[in-house]
Design a protein that fits this description.
CATH superfamily of the largest domain: Amino acid/polyamine transporter I
Strand content: 5-15%
Domain K+ potassium transporter integral membrane: 60-311
Membrane topology: Multi-pass membrane protein
Number of strands: 8
Family: Belongs to the HAK/KUP transporter (TC 2.A.72.3) family.
Shape: elongated
Helix content: 55-70%
Subcellular location: Cell membrane
CATH class of the largest domain: Mainly Alpha
Protein name: Potassium transporter
Structural class: alpha/beta
Distance between the termini: 46 Å
Length: 772
């Protein structure tokens, strides 16, 4: 009987505790409400401006150099990589040409032009852009910092799935486990890392193949001279990147146009002069005959054919009658009278092909930084007119060193071509997997259509993959090594970033504790504005409690600032800042969330601090006008303030009845300074005693003028100087990842203050140690 009574009492206490937690959770939420209303006020204020016809033509002309440059340089090396050991039968050339034609038809044209290019994020492409699209349609982001207010952005486009549909089931399956979200991210990062490897291999093979033409008229020239010339050209190419994509694109676009005209004319010339029968390669039967005749060697040659993108009929016609020129088919096939002009244009085209992948690598790194998957590096916006034209000095020199190392080490096109082919085919496979999810979640296509696309794509791409995997020991290991290093960096950085965010969420301070301190926060309020930076978009960050428990003073105005990146390509300037008040007016505490897309940059001339304060002043003016409007809706700022006051009064009444109802947070990992006993004079229950609510109704000086005076007095940025360490008892791989790899990367990368261009004289770092 006694046991039953004891169990009943225990159950009753448990029920009371659960009720108390629920009441306190509601109390916290009401004190620090979401920013949905503030976001709604900004909705529809921004209208995207379209491009004029003239501007569209200008960008199209530039794309010749930046995009199609990489597509047009393949004739320099494809046949050499397809037949590295020579050509034994003329029919093999026809078979290889037939493979090239149908590979171009199936992969670049049908798959990429007609299908993959439609899976763009407002015109942005790449694995991370598709990942951003998926993050908006399913909760697969590992950093759960998105709020309902973010969905009101004009650039936050998404489609809703019908309940019970196959897309809804796929979405539920993908969101069900953390391991599935992480597996998706690893697949995305693998494709991204291979693209970074492409940024190293493309300049190496393109420039080396172009400069190799100087040996056609000088057969006795040493290959070391060709390598030396290639290295000098590569240094020149990377040294001019700081001028920006806009200028470089204008410089190279005419070269590519001339290049396409040259190779087109040369192709027609060779077909007419050497062998018009090569056109029979358009019949797919020669693919069958090619594999039947060459067997395993024919299958392995797919790795060289994979490098093909443009037309090769002219070179094929030449090789049918000149098999001995398999190494230098391109230069040997052109008329002698145009040899030197073609060599110059080919070298320029190689520059263009390299520029395409270099520019793409910059964009990929920028996207990875925004997704929390890469250390913060310096990113320079090179164009005032076009968003997304950027330059990364650190990445630029890393790519240059990588290109020079690959060129000087291999000294020939074959092994570099094998490496390049491996990178390309892995990116193709990753793209296919991401397209499956895009078709289901974003486009909501029928699963049968998705299945057909998947089978056909994998049938072709796995064939190429099986060919390049046989060449891993012949250069194919290079992109795998580059990808492994890049993947390690990205995965560790993202893993610790997620752990840091989770730690901050669990250790944030209770708003009731803050209110219990009274308007002075238990400190001396000195003139000025304190901007407390944190990753949190809601709640009071741990850094603030650490600050006020170790220093005797705090600024008259405190603004909690959260700079967060969203899975959108850009956030319009008019919708970037969300501002709201925290607590009663006399506390003078606010929250500001600055939102950025993965193409947005923190430019020095943006003047982040002034823009933030301007939005704060605008918020005060709007709030004042709304409070003076007696007909304002019940969701006005005034009503919300009254709701907070009423909530505090109700909480006080509850507190008088039962002290057990005083709960300051259900979160864990609190510091001692953030824990306040129930009977403490600083508790929220004694709020009415230490700070009567009626004081809010007293006459006060104009708040806007007060804020302006505080701004003139001085603005201080309070940032956390955080050291992350692995918890005691962590496994060895985790300790190595956090205590060594991440710590090294953190020391090498840029600080948040540098990203936001915070002057050193206005910066105050608060040291913290996170055990994750």
């Amino acid at each position: 009987m006694a046991e039953r009574v004891e169990a009943s009492v225990t159950d009753g206490e448990s029920t009371i505790e659960e009720r108390d937690r629920e009441l306190m959770r509601e109390f916290e939420e009401r004190l620090d409400q979401p920013m949905d209303e503030e976001a709604n006020m900004l909705k529809d204020m921004n209208k995207e401006k379209g491009l004029s016809t003239l501007m569209l033509l200008r960008l199209s002309f530039q794309s010749l150099g930046i995009v199609y440059g990489d597509l047009g340089t393949s004739p320099l090396y494809v046949f050499y990589n397809t037949f590295p050991d020579g050509i034994k039968d003329s029919e093999d050339v026809i078979g290889a040409l037939s493979l090239i034609i149908y590979s171009l038809l199936l992969i670049p044209l049908i798959k990429y032009v007609f299908i993959v290019c439609k899976a763009n994020d407002n015109g942005q492409g790449g694995t991370l852009a598709i990942y951003s699209l998926l993050c908006r349609h399913a909760k697969v982001n590992l950093i759960p910092n998105q709020q309902r207010s973010d969905e009101d952005l004009t650039t936050y486009s998404r489609t809703l799935v019908a309940e019970g549909s196959f897309a809804a089931k796929t979405k539920k399956w993908l969101e069900s486990r953390h391991s599935k979200k992480r597996a998706l991210l690893v697949v995305v990062l693998l494709g991204t890392c291979m693209m970074i490897g492409d940024g190293i291999l493309t300049p190496a093979i393109s420039v080396l193949s172009a400069t190799g033409g100087i040996r056609v008229n000088n057969p006795k020239m040493s290959s070391d001279i060709v390598v030396l010339v290639s290295v000098i050209l590569l240094i020149g190419l990377f040294s001019m990147q700081h001028y920006g994509t806009d200028k470089v694109g204008w410089l190279f676009a005419p070269i590519v146009l001339i290049w396409f005209l040259f190779i087109g004319a040369t192709g027609i010339y060779n077909i007419c002069k050497h062998d018009t029968s090569v056109l029979k390669a358009f019949s797919p039967k020669y693919i069958y005959l090619y594999f039947k005749r060459r067997g395993r060697d024919g299958w392995i040659s797919l790795g060289g054919i994979l490098l093909s993108i443009t037309a090769y009929c002219g070179q094929a016609a030449f090789l049918v009658n000149h098999k001995e020129h398999y190494k230098d088919a391109f230069y040997a096939s052109i008329p002698e009278s145009v040899y030197w002009p073609m060599l110059i244009v080919a070298t320029g085209a190689a520059f263009v092909g390299s520029q395409a992948t270099i520019s793409g690598t910059y964009s990929i790194i920028k996207q990875a930084v925004s997704h929390g998957c890469f250390p913060r590096v310096k990113i320079v916006h090179t164009s005032k007119k076009f968003l997304g034209q950027i330059y990364c000095p650190d990445i630029n020199w890393i790519l240059m060193i990588g290109c020079i190392t690959v060129t000087a080490s291999f000294k020939n096109q074959t092994e570099i071509g094998n490496a390049y082919g491996t990178a390309v085919v892995v990116v193709m496979l990753v793209t296919t997997l991401l397209m499956v999810l895009t078709m289901l979640l974003v486009w909501r296509r029928h699963w049968i259509f998705v299945l057909v696309f998947t089978i056909l794509s994998l049938l072709v791409e796995l064939s190429y993959f099986s060919a390049v995997i046989l060449k891993v020991n012949e250069g194919g290991w290079v992109p795998l090594m580059i990808a492994a290093i890049s993947l390690l960096v990205m995965f560790v950085w993202n893993y610790v970033t997620v752990k840091k965010y989770e730690f901050e969420v669990h250790s944030r301070v209770s708003m009731s504790w803050i209110l219990g301190l009274g308007p002075s926060l238990g400190l001396v309020r000195v003139p000025g504005i304190g901007l407390v930076h944190s990753e949190l978009a809601s709640g009071v960050p741990r850094i603030f409690s650490h600050f006020i428990t170790n220093l005797p003073a705090i600024h008259s105005v405190v603004v909690f600032v959260c700079v967060k990146n969203l899975p959108v390509y850009t956030v319009p300037e008019e919708e970037r800042f969300l501002v709201k008040r925290i607590g009663p007016k006399t506390f003078r505490m606010f929250r500001c969330v600055a939102r950025y897309g993965y193409k947005d940059l923190h430019r020095k001339d943006d003047d982040f601090e002034n823009k933030l304060l301007d939005h704060l002043f605008s918020f005060i003016q709007t709030e004042t006008m709304m409070e003076s409007d007696s007909n304002y809706s019940p969701y006005s700022f005034n009503h919300r303030q009254d709701s907070r006051d009423e909530l505090i009064r109700n909480n006080n009444n509850h507190g008088r009845k039962d002290k057990n109802m005083v709960m300051f947070s259900s979160m864990v990992d609190y510091t001692e300074s953030a824990i306040v006993p129930a009977d403490s004079p600083h508790s929220a229950m004694s709020f009415s005693q230490n700070y009567p609510v009626e004081e809010e109704e007293e006459e006060e000086e104009d708040e806007l003028e007060f804020l302006k005076i505080c701004k003139e007095t001085g603005v201080v940025h309070i940032m956390g100087n955080t050291v992350v360490k692995a918890r005691k008892g962590s496994l060895l791989p985790k300790k190595i990842a956090i205590d060594y790899v991440y710590r090294f990367l953190a020391k090498m990368c840029r600080a948040n203050s540098a990203i936001l261009h915070v002057p050193h004289e206005t910066l105050l770092n608060v040291g913290q140690v996170y055990y994750v």
